Amino acid sequence: xxxxxxxxxxxxxxxxxxxxxxxxxxxxxxxxxxxxxxxxxxxxxxxxxxxxxxxxxxxxxxxxxxxxxxxxxxxxxxxxxxxxxxxxxxxxxxxxxxxxxxxxxxxxxxxxxxxxxxxxxxxxxxxxxxxxxxxxxxxxxxxxxxxxxxxxxxxxxxxxxxxxxxxxxxxxxxxxxxxxxxxxxxxxxxxxxxxxxxxxxxxxxxxxxxxxxxxxxxxxxxxxxxxxxxxxxxxxxxxxxxxxxxxxxxxxxxxxxxxxxxxxxxxxxxxxxxxxxxxxxxxxxxxxxxxxxxxxxxxxxxxxxxxxxxxxxxxxxxxxxxxxxxxxxxxxxxxxxxxxxxxxxxxxxxxxxxxxxxxxxxxxxxxxxxxxxxxxxxxxxxxxxxxxxxxxxxxxxxxxxxxxxxxxxxxxxxxxxxxxxxxxxxxxxxxxxxxxxxxxxxxxxxxxxxxxxxxxxxxxxx
Amino acid sequence: xxxxxxxxxxxxxxxxxxxxxxxxxxxxxxxxxxxxxxxxxxxxxxxxxxxxxxxxxxxxxxxxxxxxxxxxxxxxxxxxxxxxxxxxxxxxxxxxxxxxxxxxxxxxxxxxxxxxxxxxxxxxxxxxxxxxxxxxxxxxxxxxxxxxxxxxxxxxxxxxxxxxxxxxxxxxxxxxxxxxxxxxxxxxxxxxxxxxxxxxxxxxxxxxxxxxxxxxxxxxxxxxxxxxxxxxxxxxxxxxxxxxxxxxxxxxxxxxxxxxxxxxxxxxxxxxxxxxxxxxxxxxxxxxxxxx
Lengths: 462, 292
Description:
The complex is a heterodimer of chains A (about 450) and B (about 290).
Chain A lengths: L14 H4 L12 H8 L9 H5 L6 H9 L3 H9 L5 H7 L6 H4 L2 H4 L5 H15 L13 E5 L3 H12 L3 E5 L8 H4 L8 H14 L3 E3 L10 H7 L4 E4 L5 E2 L12 E3 H10 L16 E5 L3 H12 L3 E5 L11 H9 L3 E3 L2 E8 L5 E14 L5 E5 L5 E4 L2 E4 L3 E2 L3 H5 L24 E3 L2 H4 L4 H22 L1
Parallel strand pairs in A: 1-2, 1-4, 2-3, 4-16, 6-14, 7-8, 7-14, 8-9
Antiparallel strand pairs in A: 5-15, 10-11, 11-12, 11-13
Helix pairs in contact in A: 2-4, 4-5, 4-9, 5-9, 6-9, 10-19, 14-15
Chain B lengths: L1 E10 L2 E7 L1 H6 L5 E5 L7 E9 L4 E7 L3 H8 L5 E2 L1 E6 L10 H5 L3 E6 L3 H13 L4 E7 L8 H7 L1 E6 L6 E2 L2 H10 L6 E5 L2 H13 L4 E4 L15 E4 L2 E4 H4 L2 E3 L5 H8 L3 H15 L11
Parallel strand pairs in B: 8-9, 8-12, 9-10, 10-11, 12-13
Antiparallel strand pairs in B: 1-2, 1-6, 2-5, 3-4, 3-7, 4-5, 13-16, 14-15
Helix pairs in contact in B: 6-7, 7-9
């Protein structure tokens, strides 16, 4: 019988303290807390949470194992469907997926599925089986382009099937967006990301950094010259968008990608590292997604007064609820229904302010959200010295442009079916490069489905 | 890790290094660049490719030690390694895709300034190997700062210009361009690579002669693959990314003033980093955290 107690709160760093450091915000549950929270699960016969999970993790089953303290069994249950529980437990938008569907959420608070998943994932990293799980090689080789969530998931599954897997990463560190995009205070790099990647190395996966697909190697050179049986493209949506307004090339205007890459990949916030970063004394971040929250909280930690400017209202913010909540606790200013129309500069070409207009919500657009409309005569300026554009990203065209016969759509995404098959034989793709910017879990799911399809393809070819 | 096979000082503070990088060497073409990192704490710095041999698997870079990161690169010795060497990046020079017969009908004038002489070399070499005639102006402040003059002379007709007249023509490369053209030399195309200010003035000059000119921009970059947009430059009124849309652009379309201003985006931070590095090198350990 389920325990009718309130949702167990997760211990967190004090907002005032954490707004000045890059340590993880949330400490996560200990075993006692996890078991207490697990006791709230109703173990529904038709679990709505599972239906809402993009990779259909057997949520009540793993929670049942947590309750009984069977943590290896809980980890094995999750592993059937997800290869990155420590990551997804931290970054999934649970409120619109599993937790959003939880029956308990109708009258009260849903089970903290994300925090429990994270607990199990972290336990697995610390205590799980680490014996050499290297399977017997099946004699086939697969090249994976990109070491983000989809590539890692695809690599892991193929390695378990006995494939010789080599992952090509353009940057100098493995992990893709987990390393360059999501900040340390939300997803620890050494303690979590690097350890998840180490578990793939134990399966025999080889990583080759500094290798840019479309430049250093091409899809065709991998297939024809290097003799891979198949190629999986998981190169992500890496190109930053800008608004196209006047003043956007002033000094002090950066993309969130640049700002976060400097902080996360290059450790620019740490004096031991050489890469500079500039957050100014007052930073305005344009956008309302997770990347915007990451950028604004990073700017705050670097000592700037930091403001979010978003053209719709707070309910429409696409960021995870927890990130918005954390940002507010840390003293981030939110200016909703506000849209920049020009960046204003000093005579030396540095940012001095953003000129904005006020917006109001009109009729719903095709996405179902009420579209923002400009209020007449509402122009005003926000003084600032840094503007960070967090307006979303689009796929990098480098691979499609250098691979003949690889079909793309009008948004520049590679066209692939649900199993990742592209218009080119032996070439598979998944994650943001196919869907446009989405979530870690969707990319991971796509990578795993493509692994199945690659296995089927290679074995049928024999 | 990418081993330094060979290293020597070409001029004061300008170093040539031959790096073992088989994949980059195999894929490299004229006009492209690499991103290197000296060590775990280092910046990713874009450097132009000065030479490469796809069979022997090496790439040559030429670095002028001007900041913390470039000094770290040149401080490494033969036998040591760069931690990262990624490339080739950027689009190859446009002429690489043109029919050789067409190229042979044209006469190229390359204008190289300072360290920018190094990336001119693979372009001229590539053209010369295919029987395309090139002339190269190599400019520097003074004789001791000239680089690549011998190598270049082996593949093209070379003109030297020094500001102080210690070698060749006395004066700026722009004055030499005028002298050559006014003296009857005919060129169909110019390529200028060097400091941004030099490329700006070369462009102002060649525009007067309506001589089609290409420049290779050395914008700030982080990833070099199109991800960050630090290298934004306005070309023909449109924002382009130097790393993936360039580095070479039609010179007449480039907003040089904006490009120069954007190069200075982190200058005060770099100066600070330089000062901290100098203090550390002198054995000073900061006790109040000013070096953080």
